[in-house]
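Batch manifest line 257
LIGAND: S-adenosylmethionine
JOB: complex structure
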Amino acid sequence: MSDVTIELHRRKGDYGIDGDFEKISAGWVLTGVAAILVALVVATVWTLAAGLLITGVIIGVLTLAFMFFQGTYLWTTLIGKFRVWARILGNLRLRGDEQVLDLGCGRGALLLTVAQLLPRGRAVGIDLWTADQSGNSPEATLRNADLEGVADRIELHTGDITTRLPFADNTFDLILSSLVVHNIPSAEGRRAAIDEAVRVLRPGGRIVIADLLHTARYATRLQELGLTDIHRRNLGPHMWWGSPLLATRLVTATKPT
Ligand SMILES: C[S@@+](CC[C@H](N)C(=O)[O-])C[C@H]1O[C@@H](n2cnc3c(N)ncnc32)[C@H](O)[C@@H]1O
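JOB STATUS: finished
ARTIFACT:
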């Protein structure tokens, strides 16, 4: 089956930048990156102009590697992840009346995209609003929902996905999560998050998790819990976090009826 890329209206919201901004704010991180880049470029030009060819080439290569790392990271967080999720959601061929849960919705990059596909459904997001995304808060997500015109289709909850979710068993047709579960520090916590997701997924429902790390473990746990049709794949360069070594993988599975 060929990929389906859904037509989404132009994004109007502000979805921040993904990263760990607990100790250093996103503004300072960007300032630091810009300063390092300027220093590397100046050092390259200066060493080459001084006739230090080998040193100049080495610093030049480091400069290009640094630019590649930062460029792919920014591309992924600002553009790539939206494009990739548009294709993933298109391939799910939703009817439009589903109940969907986004685990760790943050400022709504995925939640508000899927909400556009649910004219008769509901998109529920749950998050702890940690500094794993710049400007993360329920207010920011609600503001984005207003801007995207989907505020009437979404619901936000504040909660930890490693503890019991505030939803009954078998509630959701689809459970999504993007770049969240690896933030949970312990293997037990990550397993609890998968277990809870499966509890609130209705029989026949699908679970779709994108993440940087531990995805083989998520797939194994889903299999242990009896889910079927389990697949795991690399989402490619649009979701590289600076390098192919930090690629995002997608795990999908279906809960048996
Ligand atoms: C990198 S952001 C990704 C947000 C969103 N899924 C996206 O793709 O834009 C990770 C999100 O996971 C949330 N998060 C991390 N650990 C969590 C937990 N234990 N329970 C709920 N949310 C959590 C953070 O607050 C943050 O919003």
